[in-house]
Specification:
Shape: elongated
Order of helices and strands: EEEEEEEEEEE
Number of helices: 0
Distance between the termini: 74 Å
Helix content: under 10%
Number of strands: 11
Radius of gyration: 23 Å
Oligomer: single chain
Structural class: mainly beta
Largest sheet: 8 strands, antiparallel
């Protein structure tokens, strides 16, 4: 299997989960293309998906123990809070660039990256609310500050020697 196939657990809105592998372009015509453990290609409509969990191990659960950051995250990006249609709340960190905001949904890093779940794809249709809590690190938008002008070095020796 090529290295572009990633292990995922797809959690549906009806709380059912499907595990398997996805390729680099796993969203095709508003459906998630998933190769399940039996080797069958499964197409799941995006409006039936709550989230796609990119995991280290398929045997472990995709359930996230810590759903919010205990303090301000250290990594750069957008600190976001998601509220799903079933009232579940999840915080995460996503890149601070426009390419992260696809029409279908977006990827976030969960609060505990040492757990089984490494990234989560969240379809827009599964959300009730999306809030940006903070912009962490990076360059602030607006005017750039001019570089500090250093004074000239004092002459210590005469140049006529």
């Amino acid at each position: 299997m090529p290295s572009t196939h990633k292990r995922v657990i797809v959690r549906r809105l009806d709380r059912d989960s499907v595990s398997g592998f996805v390729g680099a372009s796993y969203i095709q015509q508003n459906k998630i293309e998933l190769l399940n453990a039996a080797g069958k290609l499964v197409l799941i409509p995006l409006e039936e998906v709550k989230a796609v969990y990119f995991v280290r191990d398929l045997e472990n659960s995709e359930e996230i123990v810590r759903k919010s950051f205990p303090s301000r995250p250290r990594a750069e990006g957008l600190w976001v809070r998601l509220i799903f249609n079933d009232q579940e709340m999840l915080e995460g960190l996503m890149g601070n660039e426009l390419s992260q905001f696809a029409p279908d949904g977006f990827l976030i890093a969960p609060p505990d990256t040492r757990g089984n779940t490494q990234r989560i794809f969240v379809p827009r249709s599964s959300l009730q609310s999306f809030s940006v809590l903070a912009v962490i690190g990076g360059i602030a938008l607006g005017k750039k500050r001019p570089a500090a002008v250093r004074p000239a070095m004092p002459q210590l020796f005469a140049e006529n020697e």
